[in-house]
Amino acid sequence: DKWPKQCLPMGKIVGGLSEEAAKHLSLKEGTPVAQGGPDAFVGMLGLGCVRPGQLALITGSSHLHLAVSSNDATSQGIWGAYKGAPLPGMCFAEGGQSSTGSMLRWCRDLLWGDKMSYSEADAMAEGVEAGCEGLVMLETFQGSRTPVTDAQAKGAMIGLTLGHSKAHIWRAALESVCFGT
């Protein structure tokens, strides 16, 4: 009973607000209620990414690249093609990683707690050369989405030495998001 009996396209009117909901929301009873969708697909539409050849980069706790196509071509390591979701007559392919923004928050909090803003941490990392003097981080702290789907994949820091600082670790975390996405 938890799952709907039928899946409807995003934006389809599914009913109207009940009297109780309308009162709670200070809206009129019967105000149309539309089918929602996954946050990334809603974000893609909000960016205006609706025509073949367009690509949306959605960032948050994870990162996604969503590409619009008029055909259902697939490729190894890419999720989809999702036919008709979220737009009828279009196909969508997806790539990205499961843990990017959430991994950066974890790393920032571990290194500095909430005493350091992201901008301040980024400024410190600017003093570290690209490549972090051999320190490499894998961003797969919550598994891997693409190009290899593996829910059991783990994150890692490789090459850590006593010569590395918090700024090195932060830069390695940022670089891991760039390379992993």
The figure for the number of domains is 3
Distance between the termini: 37 Å
Strand ordering within the main sheet = 3-4-6-5
Structural class: alpha+beta
Helix count equals: 5
Give the overall pLDDT as a whole number. 92
Q: Give the SSE string.
A: EHEHEEEEHHEEH
Radius of gyration (CA) equals 21 Å
Per the principal axes of the C-alpha atoms, what is the gross shape? globular
The description of the largest β-sheet is: 4 strands, antiparallel
CATH class of the largest domain: Alpha Beta
CATH topology of the largest domain: Nucleotidyltransferase, domain 5
What is the CATH architecture term of the largest domain?
2-Layer Sandwich
* Contiguous uncertain segments of 5+ residues: none
Describe the structure.
Keywords: Kinase, Transferase. Residues 56-181 form the Carbohydrate kinase FGGY C-terminal domain. One of its GO terms (biological process) is pentose metabolic process. This is Carbohydrate kinase FGGY C-terminal domain-containing protein. GO terms for molecular function: D-ribulokinase activity. The chain has 181 residues and is α+β, with helices and mostly antiparallel strands. It folds into 3 domains: 1-36, no CATH class; 39-95, no CATH class; 101-180, 2-Layer Sandwich (Nucleotidyltransferase, domain 5). The chain is 28% helix and 20% strand. It contains 5 helices and 8 strands. It has helices at 19-25, 39-46, 101-112, 118-125, 166-180, and strands at 13-16, 32-34, 55-59, 63-69, 79-83, 91-97, 136-138, 156-158. Strands 3-4-6-5 form a 4-stranded antiparallel sheet, with helices on one face. It has a two-stranded antiparallel ribbon with strand order 1-2. It has a two-stranded antiparallel ribbon with strand order 7-8. A hairpin with a 3-residue loop joins strand 3 and strand 4 (63-69). The longest helix has 15 residues, at 166-180. The radius of gyration is 21 Å and the shape is globular. The model has no long low-confidence stretch (mean pLDDT 92).
